[in-house]
Amino acid sequence: MKKVLALLTLAIGLGACSGEQTTYINIGTGGTAGTYYPLGGAFAEIWNSNIKGVNATAESTGASVANVNMLEKGDIDVAIIQNDVASYAENGVELFDRKIETIRGMATLYSEPIQCITTDSSINSIEDLKGKKVAIGAIGSGVYCNAVQILEAAGIGEKDYKPQYLSFAEAATGLRDRQIDAAFLVAGVPTSAIVDLATQRNVKVVNIDKELATKLKNKYSYYTDYTIKGGTYSTQKEDAQTLTVQSMLVVSSKLSEDMVYNMLKSMYANTDRIKTAHKVGEFIKEDTGLEGMSIKLHPGAEKYFSEKGIK
């Protein structure tokens, strides 16, 4: 009996010695019906299959702002958020009353253009929004911040128009029912709600002209130029010039350099899997992984992109 117990103890001891340490990676995404969640699932699958000892899981969350708060608390390790929200978090401005010390950049993913939508034929520029009823998102939302920044850069303060603090679903209904004159939204194109609206109303995307765009880009590092091609919406005949923010991956500063490096390496080696998760996956490319990067990079990301000669 003693001999059997000794052998069992030895076997357990050897098992413990040979067992690998598991690294749990929780990924903050967004709602299950959105874009971030299926992408997070694809990232988790890639990292689980390609990085030894990793157990990654995508979690449905309240998206960008909620993800930053969860990252700070240590509830998640990686998150998909907008790059402007990342900048606010790092600097403790707009949506955040303090600097989030643990947030680091991993890579930017794809564009989420700012769309100013109108059904009013008299509105042809941002300046034309003076005196109009304009939906600018819920107070404290990312859309609200983008809209106010653009309007203020155009010399339009909140006393110069009639702000409507609406979700986009509410704004789309307001445009359809002619209760508002224009609405800002931040989303990939074509946006399904606008596609539907264009079957009922003459939808137009309002241009952000070159001078205004330059002014905004000089002040806010996260904005880049974007063209919404004519025909994106059935009633939109010409190209519309606007600005875009980027969706991006952020990570906790507590993750190791090697871990983040290997996460990037395996992600870019398996972009076909990302494309099957969502159509925006076709825009996730290594050579654009630093475009619109708005915060300090994690050392693992610095190492990866430096080795690839990407700046």
Calculate the mean pLDDT score and round it: 91
Tell me the fraction of residues in β-strands, as a range: 15-25%
Helix content: 25-40%
The low-pLDDT segments are 1-18
CATH class of the largest domain: Alpha Beta
Shape from CA axes? Answer: elongated
The tally of helices reads: 11
Radius of gyration: 23 Å
TL;DR?
This protein has helices at 2-18, 36-50, 64-73, 83-91, 142-153, 168-176, 192-197, 210-219, 257-268, 271-277, 299-307, and strands spanning 23-28, 54-59, 78-82, 103-118, 133-135, 162-164, 182-186, 204-205, 224-228, 240-252. By secondary structure, the protein is an alpha/beta fold.
What labels describe this entry?
311 residues, alpha/beta, D-Maltodextrin-Binding Protein, domain 2, 2 domains, 11 helices, signal, TRAP_TAXI, Alkanesulfonate transporter substrate-binding subunit
